[in-house]
Amino acid sequence: HSFLNRLYRGTNKDCIEQLRLSKNAFFNLCRILQEKGGLVRTRNVPTTEAVAMFLHILAHNLKYRVVQFSYCRSKETISRQFNDVLRAVMKVSKEYLNFQPCTLEGAEANKWRWFERCIGALDETHILVTVSPDERPRYRNRKGDVSTNVLAACGPDLRFIYVLPGWEGSAGDSRVLRDALRRQNKLEIPTGKYFLVDAGYTNGPGFLAPYRGTRYHLNEWIGNTPQSYKELFNLRHASARNAIERSFGILKKRWSILRTPSFFDIKTQIRIINACFVLHNFIRDEQQTDQLLEVQDLEFLSVVDEELVHQSREEVQNNVIDDITTIQATEEWTRFRDTLAMNMFANY
């Protein structure tokens, strides 16, 4: 197969550009999906080709007819193979979407050193979807886009720990979080541990929020130094919590299918979103020895940070804060934040 042969014989850079994985990572993924995901080669299509088609579609948001031309396969074959690979990725998802201890070095370690019992950062992001006309009102978010509201948490290493896609764009963050804390596949927060969250969330057990009414977003600090314990806490909180924004940024830059509504039915779109999170973690795990993928992350981040600055500035100007009432504030937790903030300031 000429396209695949060019990919296999080409450089790692070519493979990353086309499939978002290095050659080594690609063959590892094929093996895992066969051994653990139950992916079986069909008489005419080897698993490597099926996985390549799947990644190609996710990476570049390609229509089947475009893939048909590159791979010389019928639309029916492509559709069947795509769904087989998607099923296999979903089957291994629990192995990849979980908490794993990580070791940080240098500046990254410094960002998190004050938040000892913290397991990561949590936030929600909207991903555009296509739904039937009668469902559009439910999926329309406050910006007027038709989207699904996705709740996710990531660790300091930018690996996702938990993902809940599927809620309609009109669903408030409070409802989505409440569902995440109660559903069968629920967000688990070990006692005494917590996530960093933004000012829309209540500061309560398991969720450490910044002080409201005090400068917070990173771009607000340019050329300024903290003048109080609340300001210093908010600055350090924002620097660490930025991990979730960076993770979302890398995810959406890597998988084009997440940036525009796709032609799949809504159930499949939700599963595709889930698969992109799984693949994000797979790549981060493989990346420990993969410099090219590391370079790609840095490229994604350099673009993302500028976008985030504009996005956060817009939110500050419009004062967009969702009140999330799912979390109950307690005096003990308020004291915990104050003590932490005052200790930071005393050592500043």
Give structural notes.
This protein is α/β, with parallel strands linked by helices. The protein folds into 2 domains: 2-91, no CATH class; 99-346, no CATH class. The chain has helices at residues 2-9, 12-19, 23-35, 47-60, 64-71, 75-91, 93-96, 106-112, 136-139, 173-182, 229-254, 266-286, 291-318, 331-346, and strands spanning 118-128, 147-154, 160-168, 194-196, 207-208. Helix 3 packs across helix 4. The relative contact order is 0.13. The model is unreliable at 308-319 (pLDDT under 50). Belongs to the HARBI1 family. GO terms for molecular function: hydrolase activity; metal ion binding; nuclease activity.
Q: What is the count of structural domains?
A: 2
Shape: globular
Question: Structural class of the helix and strand makeup?
Answer: alpha/beta
Multimerization state: single chain
Pfam family, one: DDE_Tnp_4
Protein name: Putative nuclease HARBI1
GO molecular function, one term: nuclease activity
Domain DUF8040: 2-91
Descriptive keywords:
alpha/beta, globular
Tell me the layout of helices and strands:
Layout: H1 2-9, H2 12-19, H3 23-35, H4 47-60, H5 64-71, H6 75-91, H7 93-96, H8 106-112, E1 118-128, H9 136-139, E2 147-154, E3 160-168, H10 173-182, E4 194-196, E5 207-208, H11 229-254, H12 266-286, H13 291-318, H14 331-346
Parallel strand pairs: 1-4, 4-5
Antiparallel strand pairs: 1-2, 2-3
